[in-house]
Target: Histidine ammonia-lyase
Amino acid sequence: MGTPRQTVTVGTGPLSFAQVTAVARDGAGVRLGDDAFSALEKGRAVVEELASASTPTYGISTGFGALATRHIPPDLRAALQRSLVRSHAVGSGPEVEREVVRAMMLLRLSTLATGHTGVRAETAARLAALLSAGITPVVREYGSLGCSGDLAPLAHCALALMGEGEVRDASGTLMPAAEALAASGLRPAELHEKEGLALINGTDGMLAQLVLAVTDLRRLLTTLDIAAAMSVEALLGTDRAFAPDIQALRPHPGQAASAANLTAILAGSGVVASHRGPHCTRVQDAYSLRCSPQVHGAARDTVAHAATVAGRELAAAVDNPVVLHGDGRVASNGNFHGAPVAYVLDFLAIATADVASISERRTDRLLDTARSHGLPAFLADDPGVDSGYMIVQYTQAAVVAELKRLAAPASVDSIPTSAMAEDHVSMGWGAARKLRRAVDGLTRVVAIEILTAARALDLRAPLEPAAATRAVVALLRSLGAGGPGPDRYLAPEVDRAVALVGSGAVLDAVESVTGTLS
Model:
C-alpha cells in the first residue's frame, strides 16, 4: 500500500463516500479531529460514572446477549471485554477483501468518534493508527448475521487491535497481529469497560460494502450507457427514441440522465446518419435498444435510493447500549439491526442482474444474422471456419445467469440466535457479499458488450462511428483488444476489456470527447 497519499480526518460528523473510498482503496491515513476527542471524553465520563455505580448497566457491568442477567464485578470487567472479542472472532471461510476491511474499520471509528459508544479516546486513536499503518486484520467470509451488527467481522478487527489474531501488513504479508503492531511501533490496546462491545456492535461491514458498491455502480451504469450506445450504433438503431421531449413524458430522473448520455455519445455518428433517410423501412428498434434509458434509468434511481440510505447510515452512531451525553444515560436500543442496509443491498442486486440481462440481449443481437442487419454471423472473419464471438456471448450469458441467482434476496431470511434473545436478524452481511460478486459480474458483462460492439463497428466500415464511440474502439485496440480477423485466443482480450471498464478508462475515453456524462 505504501505511504498514505492523504489523511482523512474523522470527527463527529458523517464521512463522505469519497473519504471512505480514499481510506479503503487508496490507502489514505486516518486521524481523529479535535471535536472527536471532546465527544469521546464526554461519552467516557458517562461510562465511568455508571461503572462505579452499584446498579448493573448492560454492556458495562453485565454479560452480553442472553447472558445479560449476570452482574460482573469490577475486577473481572477487563477480562469480560477481552473474552467478548475473542469469543466473537469466529469467522470462517475465505478472506474478505482488504478494501472492505479497511472501510469497515474506518466506519467503526467514525461511530466511536461521536462519543456515543463510551470508548476512551486512547482506544479510538489506536484504531486510527492501525489504519494509517496499513495493518489489515484478517476477516473471514462467514460469521455475520447482520444483527447485532456485524459481530464476527468486527471482532476480528478488535482482536487485531488487542495484538491477537492474524493481519496483513501494508505490503500484504500475512503475520501475527502482535508482530505487525510491534513493527509499526504500536502497542496492543487494553480494553476497559464497554470498549470490547463498542468495537464490535455495528453495521459497519455491510455499510462498507454498500458504500463501495454504490461508488462502483455509479461508474458502471454510465459505462453501460456507453455500451448501449455502441450497440445501438452497430445495429443500425436510431437515437430518436432518446429525445428529451419524449423522456420528459415519464419524468424519472435516472431515465432522463441515461437518455441524455446516449444522445451525447451518439452525436455526430455517421453510422446513425446513414440510415436516417426516407429509404429506411425500420419503424422502431427492439426493446433492448429502445428501452435502454428506461431500464438503465431505473437502476440509476435504485442506486440513488441506496446512496440516500447509505448517507443516513454514515450519519448514524450504531451501538448498543448507546451513551446519551445530554442526560448521562446509557440506553439499550435496536439500532444495530441491519434491515435498512440489507434491503437496499438486495434491491441493488436485483437492479444489477436486470441491467446485465438487457446488456446480454444487445450482445446477442450483434451476433445473430437474423437480427444484426448485415453483420457476419457471430462477427466471424469466415463464418463456419471461424466462430468469432460466439462463445464470448456464452461467457456473458453464464455471468448473467449467476447474477440472477445472486438477485434472490438475503434479507427475507432470519435464523434465531443467542438462545432466542436475537430472534430476528437481517442477514445484511450476506446481502453485501453477494452484491460484491454481482458488481464484479456486471463489470464483465458490460466489458463483453463493449468488446462485441467495437468489433461490429469496425465491420460497419467505411461508415464512421461517433467520435465518442470511436474513442472506445481506439482504446481497446491500443491495449491489445484486437479488431476483426481470424479466430484467436480471446480470453486475454476479454480480461483487458474488463480491466478498462473496471478502472473507469472506458468512461474517461468517452468523456474526453463528450465532457462529463450524467
